[in-house]
Amino acid sequence: MKEKTVRLLMILFVIIITACAEYSDKAMDRGLNLGGEKLITNFPVKKMNNEQRVALVIGNADYQGVLAKLSNTVNDSRAMKDILKQRGFDVVYVEDGTKKEIKKSLNIFYKKISTGGVGLLYFSGHGLELDGKNYLVPVDADIKEKSDTEYEAVCINKVTDRLKNIGNRLNIVILDACRNDPFSRAVGTGGLAKMEPIGLFVSYATGAGSVSSDGKAGGHGLFTKYLIENINKPMGLQNVFQKTREEVYEASNHKQFPAIYNQIVKGDFYFTPPSSIGKNEEVKVEKEKLIIKEEKPKIEKDKSIEEKPKVKNNNHWNSKIFNGQRSYSQNSENTVKDNYTNLIWTKNADIKKSWSDAVKYCKSLSLDNYTNWDLPTKKELQYLTDTSKFAPVIDTKYFNVPRDITHHWTKTTFEADNSKAFGINFLAGGYDNFDKSEESYVFCVSRP
Description:
alpha+beta, Mannose-Binding Protein A, Chain A
């Protein structure tokens, strides 16, 4: 009798131990707290590690026509392709894609993710917004007027609608496409419209309606540079992009603020799963941060970085200028007044100087009883551009500019490389960051 009782107790003990072990494994998969920090996900970790991962990566740089060629988009897309392959993604890759090639690659992508898992679309290149919709621009797009965009480019809103209806667990859309809009009346403006498709995770290189940096030639754009670094870290999806946003914002001197639109419904995602995940091990993962609003942190800017014009009714005249209105008056034979900004400009810009000499030249200028002359900021010089005109993109009734491709300096130093500064070529409206040792034309401005 005693032997039977002992055997029954031993069998019962084994059953209890086995049940506890199974419960521990399931709890680990479901993100329950097992003594360490909680792994915040409602999707089983083992399934997450084993589920299919498919990415479509597109990098466009060699644009034709009115769209400027880009420096680092191909570098960015190649780097993204490599890191995603290392993280288990089946990557469909397109470089300098035409509209036909992009559509073909999208169909391959749709077919692959239709069997389930996680899909990721990354695009680096020119993007345009038209009537509240966003478009990815192929390298062969023949866009002469902005209204041509819907026929020549690929509507990303239609792509996200398709992704919502495919039915796989999760789709991620990353757009490093917030470049200058060549159809804006002012050079250096553009950006994409906000998108919040239910069930998707969407991120832009900068906020909706803003323009991002293409980075130092031969390197990477700021956004993709930091994104790749954070993909390598064992953080949840939201944290990867939150950390990227913080680093880009700081590295750009608070000028570029990546957008995050997290509309995920089914669970979380880790590019790099925490290495501690395993049977009967504690799971210690950085806790997710809940993002309530898409607001920029209120951080005081360093005023020495870029001096802004001191004008009244800034919002009033700013909207007028970027909606295409211009108003000048001849202040004298040497100077011109901008009637919206009250800025006084030198009429002629036909002398060449290096950047440092240009700064000194404007500071020492004494003209028409004005003594507070300065080299204009990027924003100030943009106010003179008018892309309704061509060769040059400035009102020649009031301003005299040389008809060649040499740019005009601004005092705005490139945040990623202090040896360069922003400049605008008024012949065709091109712009970039140029080596400060180059000799280029000079406009000087006097602020009220």
